[in-house]
Amino acid sequence: MTKLQNNVFQPAFIFSNGMVLQRDKKIPIWGIGKAGMTVQATLLQDDRVLETQSTQVKEEGTFYLELSGRCGSFICYSLVLECQGEKISYQDVLIGEVYLAAGQSNMEFPILFSQNRKELLEQANNSNLRFCRVYRNVSTEVPRMKEPQFEATVVWGRGDSASALDSISAVAYSFIFHLYQMTGEKWPIAFVDISQGGARLETFLSRSQIDALPLLHKIISEENREEDHWGTHGADNYNEIMGMYHERVCPIEHIKVKGILWYQGEGNLGTQEKSDAYVPAFEELCRGFSRYFGDNEEELPVIYAMLAPYDYSEWNAELGLPLFWEAQHQIALNNPDTMREIPIYDLTLEYVPPEIANDYPPETFHPIHPICKFPVGKRMAEAAMELVYHVGMKYMPPFPVSYEVASDRVKVTFSAISQLKSLDGEKLQGFCICGEDRRFVPAEAELCGEKEIAVYSAEVKHPVAVTYAFQNLNHGSNLCDNEGRMAVPFRSDRAASEYFLPEK
Are 286 and 422 members of one domain? Predict the structure, then answer.
């Protein structure tokens, strides 16, 4: 807990000029102060007082109060907090939609290095699009990451400042940019970004959450990360167990948001066991986010991007990515009312923006990071329109619901919103098939109905199983529906198999 210096109280560091508060939910005000002192919060429009509430600082030195929820609008408010004659005033406060953006470097990846940066900056002139970055407050003291933190470095920015855009999340900004247009420009929209490059999922979890996940706990321990060593790897270790929870979540634990954007996974993929552990861990993570940032125990909507293709064989994970995709899809199946998955393996896998390629050292650009981040945010916004705002048809990528072996082929029936097709108009690619020897080989595939595909190979006379896009690198996989939503990678069973892997 941060100790007070000369001042008598300190509001949470998330409060700032230019911030956006979640519409239609009570406005939480919290912080620390001297026990027994009275803290007063006043919301104003121009100089007109709209509401005032007060509370006393508790014995342990914390305070919390709420202001009434308000409709989203483009009205600029002022928020004034007072305690013992000390006054803090926040100006240019808006009330609209707020989304939490979290994950690792794929969410953190900035606009500066993104494809279409020039076009975006030319359109960037909207003060109603805002963003907040919660930075790590690195300390040299090891115990720092072992305890919940109050203090954080928090920076708010506005979409009419081109200079502020380069450093923010390309995916999250693309999301609010497109969502603002799709919702008819009804309210300001903002995101609060707590992502951290390289971070595993478990570092965003609390101790009680980890204790409730025996398989994850087992994996952590087997990686020489036993409990006795938690919090002993230094304050600058972004994968310290509970580190991001203590340093990113706890400082903003009372803010209210509309939903969650998540883009993460590289740090958790590898073996089948790791993928199996990810499903309950991610679901527990989202339950925690709902408790912290939701309202009245609601389950917040969650939209998450599936990972882009990458050669994970260098991590000794020949099938690490498809196994992880499988886990990500299972999460969506388990939570059809609150979560949406976004396949992105069809996007152009370019890694270096040509216009700035010579301005930065080569190690700046890693092939795990395709630079086409704006389409990811747009797809998330399309999913939000259905999941959050209930506009249009269900945002559901095609996935298989049944398999039927007929003679020398396997007929796959999909759950799809609209008719299936190939993305590029060429023949379907990305399918493999196997016989009783369990060796998968490339296969032909053709449509045999609006939502059925027949898969076959001259090398396999009696097929028993089929896969689609079940490889780390699957650039040619092209099955989608009429709306362009890519089919989810899959395998028809989990029996031990030898999978076809293209030559590098």
Answer: no
Same domain for 418 and 340? no
Say yes or no: 475 and 407 in one domain: yes
Q: Is 459 among the domain residues? A: yes
CA 11 – CA 77 distance, rounded (Å): 18
For residue 427, the enclosing domain spans 399-491
- Alpha carbons 353 and 115: distance in angstroms, whole number: 6
Taking alpha carbons only, the member of 434, 370, 439 closest to residue 408 is 434
Torsion of CA 463, 469, 474, 476, to 10 degrees: 80
CB atoms closer than 10 angstroms to residue 47:
6
* ∠ Cα 107 109 115 (to 5°): 115
Write down the pTM of the prediction.
Answer: 0.94
Tens of each residue's pLDDT in the chain, 504 residues: 556 766 889 999 999 999 999 999 999 999 999 999 999 999 999 999 999 999 999 999 999 999 999 999 999 999 999 999 999 999 999 999 999 999 999 999 999 998 888 877 887 789 999 999 998 655 545 445 678 889 999 999 999 988 889 999 999 999 999 999 999 999 999 999 999 988 999 999 998 999 999 999 888 887 755 566 565 555 456 677 888 998 899 999 999 999 999 999 999 999 999 999 999 999 999 999 999 999 877 899 999 999 999 888 877 678 899 999 999 999 999 999 999 999 999 998 787 877 787 888 877 777 788 889 999 999 999 999 999 999 988 899 999 999 999 889 999 999 988 999 999 999 999 999 999 999 999 999 999 989 999 999 999 999 999 999 999 887 789 999 999 999 999 999 988 888 876 544
> DSSP letters along 24-80, please?
TS-EEEEEEE-TT-EEEEEEEETTEEEEEEEEEPPTTSEEEEEEPP---EEEEEEEE
Pairing of β 259-263 and β 86-103: parallel
Q: Are strands 9-11 and 48-56 parallel, antiparallel or unpaired?
A: unpaired
Cβ–Cβ < 8 Å for 54, 67: no
Burial 248-272 (b: 16+ CB within 10 A, else e): bbbbbbbbbbbbbbbbbbbbbbbee
Rg, the chain, Cα only: 24
User: Which amino acid belongs to residue 274?
Assistant: K
